[in-house]
Design a protein that fits this description.
Bound molecules: 2-acetamido-2-deoxy-beta-D-glucopyranose
EC number: 3.4.23.12
Enzyme class: hydrolase
Radius of gyration: 21 Å
Distance between the termini: 26 Å
Low-confidence stretches: 1-25, 77-96
CATH class of the largest domain: Mainly Beta
Oligomer: single chain
Number of strands: 27
CATH architecture of the largest domain: Beta Barrel
Helix content: 10-25%
Strand content: 25-35%
Organism: Handroanthus impetiginosus
Protein name: Aspartyl protease
GO molecular function: aspartic-type endopeptidase activity
CATH superfamily of the largest domain: Acid Proteases
Structural class: alpha+beta
Largest sheet: 17 strands, mixed
Shape: globular
Number of domains: 2
């Protein structure tokens, strides 16, 4: 079935936004530490949509089809024994859907890297890479490039090969990725430039070989909370603070932004505490205390929402999962209340099991996520997706996949679009404010 978002208001916004843009809407931004974030298949992205004739909603369904693997991945991480290895770049299942411009080396080489809040390390395909398809970083033309030795602590952080009994060597590591993919990388360092900021000696994986089809074509930038992440490696530069606004998947010319550092962040923003899980230091856990459908507070057993570092249960905010996933009993309760209030005949479509005729849409209730100290009433476009034929609107959320014994709820990027999400790791809180960044 041919599908697309039906977001006429966004089209209007996009047109008016486009008229305010300067000559080249894809040109690099702007002020210091303010980076464009664009959907991986957006107009300004170098990547071609996998199916150019396909609608955006189909593309989203395609992307969301990787969510079960990512959920499984996130769940496996939280179930792992505590370890001193906070980074797992190659184990990410979903490639994520938003990229940011970054430059590596001196002079800088432009790469469009996927931004991923649930991972720490960065990695980039390098010249000579076997199996890589896209733009490659050429270390031999960078005057600041160096590989890192197997003896450095960072090599332990990436589970690199240990040093031979005699002598030393560069730090090689191999990671699985996407279930069907893996890569081999040399732990390296070079200058990472974001906006006008240059971070010297940034440790990243220089990818030498890939197998499989799920590797992000120009690498990945980890924005997680652990020791190899951008916040950790940039020292005091960003004071432990960043925010992003993700434009709609459908956005065309314009882009959202990744803002690094405390300057220019919204002042009056509602916040909720970030919770720390020492067993999984990369993840941004929040305290989801309830969900409302319309005015009805959905009955959810508190233990299903409770944060437990040992089991990994609780709720995270993630930029790499496409649609929000709740553990099955929570999803069922939300869906049942939603159906009660819409009272239409329902059908299924892909991952979505609550689709109905859009003529019922005006009675579709708003969904509110209640976080500790912060209520997020979802805009309609973050709640429903529509068929272009006009025949269906679907509740754009889903249960954790059947084969995943998940205890984790994941607030995903479809539900974060056109919001500014502020991550303040120093004050340990997350802020959310409405912002149209289409
Ligand atoms: C750098 O490496 C590339 C590919 O490995 C090679 O084609 C190129 O000639 C090298 N350039 C220099 C300046 O060594
Ligand atoms: C990574 O290691 C696995 C298992 O040893 C191997 O099958 C795979 O080919 C390796 N990947 C790369 C890209 O070398
Ligand atoms: C989550 O918020 C509730 C309600 O404010 C509170 O009782 C609970 O202790 C919080 N949980 C954590 C882990 O902070």
């Amino acid at each position: 079935m041919e599908l697309s978002f039906f977001l006429a208001t966004f089209l209007l916004i996009s047109l008016s936004t486009a008229s305010h843009l300067s000559f080249d809407p894809c040109s690099s931004s702007k002020s210091n530490s303010d980076l464009s974030v664009i959907p991986i298949y957006g107009k300004c992205s170098p990547f071609n949509s996998p199916k150019p004739s396909s609608s955006w909603a189909n593309t989203i369904l395609d992307m969301a089809s990787n969510d079960p693997k990512r959920l499984s991945y996130l769940s496996s991480l939280v179930a792992q024994k505590p370890t001193s290895v906070p980074i797992a770049p190659g184990q990410v299942i979903n490639i994520g859907n938003y990229v940011v411009r970054a430059k590596i080396g001196t002079p800088g080489q432009l790469m469009f890297m996927v931004v991923d809040t649930s991972n720490d390390a960065a990695w980039i395909p390098c010249a000579g890479c076997t199996g890589c398809s896209s733009t490659l970083f050429a270390p031999n033309t960078s005057s600041t490039y160096g590989s890192l030795d197997c003896s450095v602590p960072e090599c332990t952080h990436v589970s690199g090969l240990s040093c031979p009994a005699i002598g030393s060597g560069s730090c090689l590591f191999n990671r699985s990725y996407g279930g069907d993919s893996s890569f081999l990388a040399t732990l390296s360092r070079d200058t990472l430039s974001l906006g006008n900021d240059a971070i010297p000696n940034y440790a990243f994986g220089c990818v030498n070989a890939i197998s499989g089809k799920s590797i992000p074509p120009q690498g990945l930038l980890g924005l997680g909370r652990g020791s190899m992440s951008l916040l950790s490696q940039s020292g005091s530069l960003y004071s432990g603070v960043f925010s992003y606004c993700l434009p709609s998947f459908k956005s065309y010319y314009f882009s959202g932004s990744l803002k690094l550092g405390p300057l220019g962040q919204p002042k009056n923003i509602k916040t909720t505490p970030l919770l720390k899980n020492p067993h999984r230091p990369s993840l941004y856990y929040v305290n989801l205390t309830g969900v409302s459908v319309g005015r009805v507070s959905v009955p959810i057993a508190p233990e299903l929402l409770a944060f437990d570092p040992n089991t990994g249960s609780g709720t995270i905010i993630d930029s790499g999962t496409v649609i929000t996933r709740f553990v099955q009993p929570i999803y069922n309760a939300i869906r049942d209340e939603f159906k009660k209030q819409v009272t239409a005949p329902f059908s299924s479509l892909g991952a979505f099991d609550t689709c109905f005729a859009p003529t019922n849409e005006q009675v579709a209730p708003a969904i509110t996520f209640h976080f500790q100290g912060l209520d997020l009433k979802l805009p309609t476009e973050n709640t429903l997706i529509h068929s272009s034929s006009g025949s269906l609107a679907c509740l754009a959320m889903a249960p954790a996949p059947n084969n995943v014994n998940s205890v984790l709820n994941v607030i995903a990027n479809l539900q974060q679009q056109n919001l500014r999400i502020l991550f303040d790791t120093v004050n340990s809180h997350l802020g959310i404010a409405r912002e149209l960044c289409n």
